[in-house]
Amino acid sequence: MAVATGTRRGTSLQALADYFELALKSEGKSRKTIDYYVGHLRLFVSYAQRQGWADVQSLDVWALRQFLAYVRDPANPLGRRLNVRSGDSRAFTHWRA
């Protein structure tokens, strides 16, 4: 779990993903739960970086909905394998608030 460099601590999506993973561990969540949330979050971070959304200030409801539409699209190979729920993003955004 590396801390992102080159940005103010806590503002890059990658840094927040790392901090979220640490928070889940410190709360005693099971490994399976951590892997589930963090796996989906890392997919979102990767997608967001490709869209040019490198920090939390660039996110809004539109960005989250765009990501959910992307992973649920049957034409997208990931859409058939992933069960990403809007609640997954809600868990992260509530933690971040």
The radius of gyration is 13 Å
The low-pLDDT segments are: 1-8
Q: Choose one word for the global shape.
A: flat
Which sheet architecture does the biggest sheet show?
A: none
* Helix content estimate: 55-70%
SSE order: HHHH
Percent of residues in beta strands: under 5%
E-strand count: 0
Mean pLDDT metric: 77
Question: Which labels suit this protein?
Answer:
single chain, 97 residues, mainly alpha, 4 helices, flat
Task: Describe the secondary-structure layout.
Blueprint lengths: L12 H14 L4 H21 L9 H12 L13 H11 L1
Helix pairs in contact: 1-2
Give an overview in words:
With 97 residues, this protein is an all-alpha fold. Helices cover 60% and strands 0% of the residues. It contains four helices and no strands. It has helices spanning 13-26, 31-51, 61-72, 86-96. The model is unreliable at 1-8 (pLDDT under 50).
